[in-house]
Amino acid sequence: MSVPLGSQVFKKIRRNSLWIMFILSVIYVVIFFFIEYNITKKAIEADKSSVRQQVVQVFESETKRLVSFYSTRVKCHLAAPEALHAMESRDPDAIYQSAKPKFDILNSTNPYITHMHFYAPDGTSLMRVHNKEKYGDNIAAQRPMVARAIETQGSVSGFEEGVYGLVFRVIEPAFNHQGEYIGSLEFGFQPLYFEKIINELFSDMKVGLIVPKNTLKIYQDTGRFESYQDVYLIGHDREDIKPFIHYSSSSDQSRTVKVNGESYLLINDVFLKDFEGQPFIQLVMLKDLKALYARFYSEVKGSAFLGLLLLLVMWLASHFVLGYFARNASNLHDELGRSHAKMNAIFNTSAEGLAVLDTDGNFLDANTAFCELMGYSNSDLQSISLKSVISEKDQVNVGNVLQMAYSGKNIEKQELYFVTKAGIHLLLELSMAALVDEGHVLMTCRDITQLRKQQKEIEDYVAVVDKYVVTSKTNLKGDITYVSEAFSAISGYSKNQLMGLNHSIVRHSDMSDSVYKSLWETISNGQTWVGDIKNKRKDGTSYWVSAVISPDFDDEENIVGYTAIRQDITDRKRVEELSITDELTGLFNRRHYIEVFDSVFNQRKREKLPFLFALIDVDYFKKYNDTYGHPAGDEALKCVAQVLKEGFQRNGDFLFRLGGEEFGAILNLDKGADAEPILNRLHKQIEQLNIVHKANAPSNQLTVSVGACLVNDYAAGLDEAAIYKKADLALYRAKDSGRNKSIIDVV
Fold first, then answer.
1. Whether the predicted model's global pTM rises above the 0.85 cut
2. What is the third-level CATH fold of 580-746?
3. HSE (side-chain half, CA atoms, 13 Å) at 138
4. Per residue in 701-734, pLDDT tens?
5. If DSSP codes are grouped into helix, strand and coil, which group holds residue 744?
């Protein structure tokens, strides 16, 4: 059979066009692969840089946290009266007795804390708690860091060598009650503590510490460190670090190095610094890059495979498209044939999966997208039915769907689980429409497996936020409209119990009205309020939160409610309370007395309410200690403090241990109230303790004397010193008149 001339010409054009399309496809695939290769390479380099930045940032943050935490511990120790008295008297034994238990506790929780050292203002060693036999030498003459701390009478931290140790040191000054500088206290940490921090934060990292030999001048125990070339090596990964010592002087922040054919990311610009901020010990850290490069080569191979797949698809697409024109060039006059061919092309090149089913649900035809999705060829599909590729749990559903489709109803966005030839379960969203003239059903579908997975991840994220972030919403009146699980957990109330209640249900009585007044003024004006709030749980216990409260607006910028996000800071507040709390009695210490006296006095003055300050002193307490011993004396002071706590519980009452057996109280009195019955009740409560004190005649029981100053007339111009003096003189009059009584000086 001869081929018409027109057909021969068109076939030649088709053949040449296929070659042109093939060449263009190859060029496109090469460019695609080159772009993918460079994108992947840049991503790997970015990952390497990110590792370095993360290490440096986290390490610096942990170092600052370490200095802050142990500076606080130093201050807490120096706040204890016995510790301060021991330093002021320069009594080595007293210093050792007051500090040794605390040093043992710190050392048991962190074995790397190996030094606790007290210095006098002239730089002399008062006591090495870690080596109590060695003291009295002039430390400031040997160690510039100590000289700096004494010169500035301030806080200093950093690495410094000493005769007996190479440690990271945190030094805090000590002052007596008159504000006079009486010396400093130092904590010291072994260098291996910083290796421990790195290993805990980055378990896949090897780390070594390098100390140049010419850095150490006076340290006598260098034999503890491994000598290598012109440096000392510290750490458990010394053998792994040695091959990289020649890189340690490089100025690069990080670089890739090879040893024995293996690649590592070397980070060598992190230093442990001295007190002047100068590098002292160099950290050398290694990260094995095998996994990173394995990912790189895997992604490159994937890109190459995808490029070849694209080439094949483009070649096939070109072949089908040009074939379509070739098959229809000789019968352009046949409008029906041309339309049918176009529909076939659309069917086969659609991005969505398409399939045609007969009345029994058997496959008659399927496009490329559906075949690739399911892993079957078109001929394989034509020998099976739709039910054979549906998961077992959706068999009933697919039967109902087919029945509705054959009845003429359009099926839209029905989700069913399909099973591919490889046994993989895919969630497909399908639609069906009946082809009435042919008696068939056209099915379209798209893979939504990843979409549903992403939706599930978002739902899980929202659930995590609900579980771990303390949040709530209220209406304009403060009535709760939403709370998270985290809010429910920290408050002790269930969600159902909280819904509809006013937010004041968790308000603690210790929080003043002025705080909440400021809060409501801020958020009512459309602004965000930020601050710390003490709340009360359902069981009556308290907790602290750092709160950010913002107004919610509708589309017209009207405030419709409020949203609060909180962070639990109870532990931080407890640490703050330790610095203002007397360790023995749990009352506020003298430092806090000095901090709050003026503010409370001025507040009472503004409110035109009486101000009462009382000094409470245990009668003949020195004789009690001499008779029953100091441990018994401590227990007696605890009992007195407990009576004070139970007796003075009004909001605005402040109780202090001012020193030894002397206590102070600022009491919140109502206008016109009589203070004498309140103090008389205190005497009775102390007597009811029934603590035997034979040196306190005639009662032979432990009693207290009270001197108080009650200020009604603020025009007298009294300040803290004058009020304290009046209360002190009243206390002496109470003792001189027989003790176990109260005398009030009214102004």
1. no
2. Alpha-Beta Plaits (3.30.70)
3. 5
4. 999 999 999 999 888 888 999 999 999 999 999 9
5. strand
